[in-house]
Amino acid sequence: MAYVGNTPAEAYISISSQTFTTINGTGYTLSSSVTNSEDIALFLNNVRQKPSTYTATGTVLTMGTATTTVDTLYCVYLGKGIQTVTPGLASVGTAQIADLAVTNPKVADDAIGVDELSATGTASASTYLRGDNAWSSIAADTNDKVAVSADDTTPGYLNGKLVGGTNITLTEGSGGGDETLTAALTGTIATARLGTGTADSTTFLRGDQTYAAPAGGVGTADQWRLTTNFTGLAQPIASNLEQCDTAPNNSFPGSAMTESSGIFTFPSTGYWYVTFDYMNNSSDESSYVLSAIYATVNDSAYTKISQAYMGLRSVWYQSSHCSAIIDVTDTANVKVAFYAPDASANTAANNTTQGDTAENKTYMTFLKLTDT
């Protein structure tokens, strides 16, 4: 049948209410939080009470007059629904959606197409979206750089665009279409581009592309000498020693030996060939004199590792030679010293060890053979 007045709505919202079962006193607890007494309609014995006769804040309800056990009391929450009403199809407009409220999970996959983008320009197979939100084609080459093009049929096109650069020449193999270029190196390449490390006259380029000193061979040599004569025993020779400095006997490869009070320190570890050449003059006959190389492995106790004897003739100059190969495993502990005369059957005061600052008479030679 027809309705009198407006047609009823298709859906209604039920109002939430609360009935108080224990009636006695002035204080009650609300099931929902409210702001003030205007948020509820309070009924005592089915008679609505004025909001001024009670207070309601949060979940606390306070009556102005105490109730008794014979009273009935309930309230209706104004504006609070107890069910969800689904909006009708196509009934929600943009005004009802808050700004920035639609997040990524709410957007269906592939739902946004080119037409939904705000970019300017024309979207096509030949344009791309730039960072400034504009559809645009790739800019044409303006710096003589290669622009790959499917319709490039111009002979010498790539050869005209590519620049060989320093020490690089380009040769065109074919022109137009499937054009090819061959690059060739000319001149020399700087050593710094060949490997890491320091490239100089003492290093070589290894297979792992690093510059390093050769591991082996005589890479270090040095020679020292006694600069003046002395008489008597020297255990060891501890003064008047110098590195040879008379040309051309004054230039040695690698780092030099160091000497302090007759103790010689090696500049690096490795196998070292050490020689001691000794010259002597004596006023005795029918006797002998001994020269020797001493070494230590703990920078403390020295042991004789090589020696040479010479028989004596009065007023004659004689020389002796001794040598040793020393494994220098630690430059702080493995050291050598030279004794001359080390021992003699005659009076030491009659023996004069020969030295000279301009030539080698009594001298020491150090050759590094290889790394240890």
List the helices and strands and how they pair.
Elements: E1 15-20, E2 25-34, E3 40-44, E4 47-48, E5 54-67, E6 73-81, E7 128-129, E8 135-136, H1 157-161, E9 168-174, E10 180-185, E11 204-205, E12 211-212, E13 220-226, E14 230-231, E15 241-243, E16 258-260, E17 263-265, E18 270-282, E19 287-296, E20 303-312, E21 317-328, E22 335-344, E23 351-353, E24 363-370
Antiparallel strand pairs: 1-6, 2-5, 3-4, 3-6, 7-8, 9-10, 11-12, 13-15, 13-24, 14-23, 16-17, 17-22, 18-21, 18-23, 18-24, 19-20, 19-22
Could you list some keywords that capture this structure?
Jelly Rolls; 7-stranded antiparallel sheet; 5-stranded antiparallel sheet; 24 strands; 1% helix; 41% strand; elongated
In short:
With 372 residues, the protein is mainly beta. It contains 1 helix and 24 strands.
Give a structural overview:
This protein has one helix at 157-161, and strands at 15-20, 25-34, 40-44, 47-48, 54-67, 73-81, 128-129, 135-136, 168-174, 180-185, 204-205, 211-212, 220-226, 230-231, 241-243, 258-260, 263-265, 270-282, 287-296, 303-312, 317-328, 335-344, 351-353, 363-370. Among the domains are: 15-81, no CATH class; 220-370, Jelly Rolls (Sandwich). The protein is built from one helix and 24 strands. Helices cover 1% and strands 41% of the residues. The mean pLDDT is 81. The protein has 372 residues and is mainly β. The chain is elongated, with a radius of gyration of 54 Å. The strands form seven sheets. Strands 13, 14, 15, 18, 21, 23 and 24 form a seven-stranded antiparallel sheet that branches. Strands 16-17-22-19-20 form a five-stranded antiparallel sheet, with no helix packed on it. β16 (258-260) and β17 (263-265) form a beta hairpin.
